[in-house]
Inverse folding.
């Protein structure tokens, strides 16, 4: 999966926070044919996967 996402990146256009190290730095990319993507965790730590799992379990109880 990661390889197919990487193939959508055409070049690095910049970066920030290199002092944190290469993996933790914020990288800017020019893309082509990237997406659609699903963001699973928001800035407040809410997980889309947990929300879906909770809803499914609630629905199963009501069956």
């Amino acid at each position: 999966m990661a390889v197919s996402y990487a193939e959508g990146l055409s070049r690095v256009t910049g970066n920030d926070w290199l002092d944190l190290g290469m993996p933790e730095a914020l990288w800017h990319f020019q893309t082509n044919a990237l997406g659609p993507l699903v963001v699973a965790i928001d800035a407040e730590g809410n997980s889309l996967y947990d929300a879906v799992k909770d809803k499914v379990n609630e629905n199963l109880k009501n069956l």
Q: What stands out?
A: The longest helix spans residues 48-61. The two ends are 35 Å apart (CA to CA).
